[in-house]
């Protein structure tokens, strides 16, 4: 229905609908969905390429050397298991709420509430991360421009871009993703040309032996490789949005498996393949923290124009991700409000079907990134990456925990089996949970990452207080969720 047909609470007049499993599903009325299959697929592919690869990999290379390739391969395998777990859940019951809905159904109402707000926080912090990265890229051309100025300009421009209709948003994101994908493939082909044909300034020294020539494959030891896992995991954050997009598709039975099953080759090509070529063309010792390895590689092989082009591409990639973050946060706030888990005023839509108020509040919070860039320009990226990683991994934890509970119920015949079963389940989900837990522990040993572990308990305490306050004010909301949850976990 159109936005003017939605009542003050944002829910359809008939109330909350019931799914075939008996679980209360959040209403999705009011939005004008204009994302076609072509746009969704390209956004899904482009979601695997972001700041973590283009900028964060520079610091990771200096910490681990060529062994970073192995870190990406191992972490990528875990990400595939997470995505297959999400895929099984979505094929069991495709809902737009995704993580929070499954957490609410299989783990309890508090976890659904906490997951929704934490994932919103993740996108706000990710927006700060991407704006920070974009401001860093500007330094390549105009080093005299203060980093915080660039961050402020980008935040304002992207906020204005989100006043456009969803159809135009989808088209812009399609071309942003096309630029990223084309650029990565082009960089790999050029690197392979340098290795095989020997052209450019690096042609005489480029060789795969560089992967072990300067201090071996593990020049900083196994410990150095392990300490990069936080940066590696950050690179994969938001890959789960493939499942969310597919869950809203007209034909999820076909779209979802196709989208999820592209995860392995995307990781193999964009991360493992790209780094394998770059570190074979230029020794890992030539890279520096805070500098894109792609830009640095083109500079070393004597193609300054190529470096400038790549810098423009990664700038576009960062702005694209931030733009998606602003788009997502507005919707997340509205979904929370429609479930009476957020302020009622966030349910309102514009005449074009846009959650303007939620987007505005999220964009305003993203301006915190401007202050961070002003106070600590050299540490800004590290700080926000740490916060984004810890909040983003919460969604993965909820996906895996919910999947374990679902598989147990399905195997016992209490729930219908999914048509897209995750391989090696539930053992793969348990292993993935252990891997994520080890990454959190390792973050405590990194001074730059440790700051997020200080903030996580504060955020958790705030969620607990907010949950009990809301439950006391409107017990029917959470009682309704508890009833639905028990109904799907019937003995």
TrEMBL record:
Residues 1-11 have a biased composition (Basic and acidic residues). The chain crosses the membrane at residues 42-61, 67-86, 106-128, 148-169, 181-202, 222-246, 267-287, 307-328, 349-372, 384-406, 427-445, 451-470. Pfam families: AA_permease. The keyword Transport applies. PANTHER family: GABA PERMEASE, L-ASPARAGINE PERMEASE. One of its GO terms (cellular component) is plasma membrane. Residues 17-28 have a biased composition (Low complexity). InterPro entries: AA-permease/SLC12A_dom (IPR004841), Amino_acid_permease_CS (IPR004840). It comes from the Bacteria. It is a multi-pass membrane protein. Residues 40-468 form the Amino acid permease/ SLC12A domain. Its main location: membrane. Belongs to the amino acid-polyamine-organocation (APC) superfamily. Amino acid transporter (AAT) (TC 2.A.3.1) family. This is Amino acid permease. Gene3D superfamilies: Amino acid/polyamine transporter I. It comes from Streptomyces bathyalis.
């Amino acid at each position: 229905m159109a936005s003017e047909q939605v009542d003050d609470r944002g829910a359809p007049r008939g109330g909350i609908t019931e799914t075939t499993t008996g679980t209360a599903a959040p209403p999705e009325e009011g939005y004008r969905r204009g994302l076609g299959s072509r746009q969704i697929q390209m956004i899904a592919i482009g979601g695997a390429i972001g700041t973590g690869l283009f900028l964060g990999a520079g610091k990771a290379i200096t910490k681990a050397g060529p062994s970073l390739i192995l870190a990406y391969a191992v972490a990528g395998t875990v990400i595939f298991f997470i995505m297959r777990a999400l895929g099984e859940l979505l094929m069991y019951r495709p809902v737009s709420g995704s993580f929070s809905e499954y957490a609410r159904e299989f783990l309890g109402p508090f976890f659904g509430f906490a997951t929704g707000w934490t994932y919103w926080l993740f996108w706000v912090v990710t927006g700060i991360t991407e704006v920070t990265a974009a401001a860093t890229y500007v330094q390549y051309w105009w080093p005299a421009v203060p980093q915080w100025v660039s961050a402020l300009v980008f935040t304002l421009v992207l906020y204005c871009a989100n006043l456009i209709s969803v159809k135009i948003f989808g088209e812009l994101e399609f071309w942003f993703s096309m630029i990223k994908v084309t650029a990565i493939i082009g960089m790999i082909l050029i690197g392979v040309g340098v290795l095989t044909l020997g052209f450019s300034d690096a042609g005489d020294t480029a060789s795969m032996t560089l992967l072990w020539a300067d201090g071996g494959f593990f020049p900083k030891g196994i410990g150095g490789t392990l300490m990069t896992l936080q940066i590696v995991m950050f690179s994969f954050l938001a890959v789960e949005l493939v499942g969310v997009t597919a869950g809203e598709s007209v034909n999820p039975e076909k779209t979802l498996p196709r989208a999820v099953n592209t995860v392995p080759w995307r990781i193999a090509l964009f991360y493992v393949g790209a780094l394998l070529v770059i570190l074979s063309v230029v020794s890992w010792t030539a890279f520096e923290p805070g500098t894109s390895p792609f830009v640095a590689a083109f500079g070393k092989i004597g193609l300054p124009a190529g470096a400038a082009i790549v810098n423009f591409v990664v700038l576009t990639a960062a702005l694209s991700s931030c733009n998606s973050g602003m788009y997502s946060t507005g919707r997340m706030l509205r979904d929370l409000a429609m479930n009476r888990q957020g302020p009622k005023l966030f349910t309102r839509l514009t005449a074009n079907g846009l959650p303007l108020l939620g987007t505005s509040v999220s964009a305003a919070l993203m301006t915190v990134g401007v202050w961070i860039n002003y106070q600590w320009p050299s540490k800004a990226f590290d700080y926000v990456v740490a916060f984004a990683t810890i909040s983003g991994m919460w969604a993965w934890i909820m996906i895996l925990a919910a999947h374990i509970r679902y598989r147990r119920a399905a195997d016992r015949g209490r729930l219908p089996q999914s048509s897209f079963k995750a391989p090696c389940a539930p053992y793969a989900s348990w292993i993935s949970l252990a891997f994520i837990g080890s990454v959190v522990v390792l973050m405590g040993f990194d001074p730059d990452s440790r700051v997020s572990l200080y903030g996580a308990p504060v955020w958790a305490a705030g969620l607990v207080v907010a949950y009990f306050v809301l439950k006391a004010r409107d017990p029917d909301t959470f009682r309704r969720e508890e009833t639905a949850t028990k109904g799907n976990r019937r003995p």
